[in-house]
Amino acid sequence: xxxxxxxxxxxxxxxxxxxxxxxxxxxxxxxxxxxxxxxxxxxxxxxxxxxxxxxxxxxxxxxxxxxxxxxxxxxxxxxxxxxxxxxxxxxxxxxxxxxxxxxxxxxxxxxxxxxxxxxxxxxxxxxxxxxxxxxxxxxxxxxxxxxxxxxxxxxxxxxxxxxxxxxxxxxxxxxxxxxxxxxxxxxxxxxxxxxxxxxxxxxxxxxxxxxxxxxxxxxxxxxxxxxxxxxxxxxxxxxxxxxxxxxxxxxxxxxxxxxxxxxxxx
Amino acid sequence: xxxxxxxxxxxxxxxxxxxxxxxxxxxxxxxxxxxxxxxxxxxxxxxxxxxxxxxxxxxxxxxxxxxxxxxxxxxxxxxxxxxxxxxxxxxxxxxxxxxxxxxxxxxxxxxxxxxxxxxxxxxxxxxxxxx
Lengths: 266, 131
Hints:
The structure holds two protein chains of two kinds. Chain A is α+β, with helices and mostly antiparallel strands. Chain A is about 30% helix and about 20% strand. Helices cover about 75% and strands about 5% of the residues of chain B. Chain B is elongated, with a radius of gyration of 20 Å. Chains A and B meet through α10 of A and α1 and α3 of B.
């Protein structure tokens, strides 16, 4: 008897999932395997993959967690385009064949699970945090809403890595920092509380930094959170060019009132 | 040199190539200050003089002035920089690592210098009455 997933609408049609399979311990090269999945209203590609895993092939591996487009774990290439599997409705694809590949430009751990170490390493390289000289944070650094607006969009990044998978420069240049790390570098440099421009300069202004972006825009096109990394990179190019003539100055927001304990506020 | 300086020069030379290129293709035939005009715009049965000169002797006469020679030398300089820095960027994306980058940089530098010297020689020979 066909298993029907609870919580979804009626079965509308059966769709073929063509999934790329690769187990480095067993397989010499990747291959595709097809599965027939009964699609109910509301089912996402991730639901389809989980249906396969639970009912058709337990050996299929995929990475996922929140199922609601927040954690950024289930990035994969669906019908040739980078998407979050949990945000992609099967019926909205309007196809009878759904091809699922792991994200590109990453090493592969197994099946649909990429090794994201490169993404995290590049993210760490741009020092994605507020840099100040003071060690002791005994008060908040002040920021007005309009100051936050300058970089607000770039705080939405969930580190899913889809942009790096879509980026053609990342496909050619293994050492390229990538759109995710560069957008986060801009996010912190543009923050009025930050004073770390010079600390990030060597990484950003290197042979595999900002200047290797050719503005193909694929990163911005596929971002599931509406972040525009290509825009951030163009801003960075402008900052670095201006920095050749006039050294970039960051304001470094002032501190507010010292923090009080709960008892002091009573 | 920092990558930002190299890339600023890349964009600047790109712009200058556009300006010098426009001069190179348009000025001589259309705006060159000479009375020896040979370009016409044909309008049915009539024709209208639009200026310029393409007689070989006139072309050579204009090209061998110091101003044009200096412009060609500047054109050659920006072209060589833009082309070979561009090749360096393309190749360094394809072949990574400190050793590969060093080989690419120096190879491009040597080829650029050879072409620059050969091109400069041609301009100087023309200016001094040869060619």
